[in-house]
Specification:
By secondary structure, the chain is mainly α. The protein is built from seven helices and no strands.
């Protein structure tokens, strides 16, 4: 059995990236919608490229991914299971999210991030507390000066008012 596994690894190591992608694409074609096939292919192409940029050998990355036909089979089964459970959309969104670079959508534009309502409220409360803290600090530092100025202005008004 170990020998058979070694043969598979040797066969995969001989694949280059384009052969791997082509086999993956052919294995997915017809079993999944074209949009999903394109997303999966794009994801694995970018994954392989990013691992190579990190200094890993192409053959090593491909060996780690395994046989593209088995990988496709697991994706097809996951897609069918997701459809049966009504969660195919979440799976597609997860795959699309993995393809994107952080902060950018597929077209290269800055991606908007939607935060939950409770998190927005928490951020708002934190900002208000920070502003109140800053105002309090300024008053604490300049309070005596402001009070002295107000007292002087009050005394000057009283003196001017009594002189008339």
């Amino acid at each position: 059995m170990a020998k058979a596994g070694g043969v598979i690894l040797r066969r995969i190591r001989k694949l280059n990236k384009e052969e791997f992608i082509t086999r993956l694409q052919h294995s997915l074609a017809g079993a999944l919608p074209g949009v999903q096939v394109a997303e999966h292919v794009r994801y694995y192409r970018e994954y392989i490229d990013s691992e190579i940029r990190r200094g890993r050998d192409e053959a090593e990355v491909l060996a780690q991914l395994g046989d593209p036909r088995l990988l496709a089979k697991s994706m097809i089964e996951a897609g069918k299971a997701g459809t049966a459970n009504g969660s195919a959309q979440g799976y597609e969104e997860e795959m699309a999210g993995d393809v994107q670079d952080a902060g950018y959508d597929r077209t290269g534009r800055v991606r908007r991030v939607m935060l939950p309502g409770w998190m927005m409220l928490l951020i708002l409360v934190m900002v208000v507390l920070i502003v109140i803290g800053l105002v309090g600090s300024v008053l604490y530092i300049f309070g005596p000066v402001i009070m002295a100025a107000l007292i002087v202005m009050f005394v000057v008004r009283v003196i001017r008012g009594s002189g008339q």
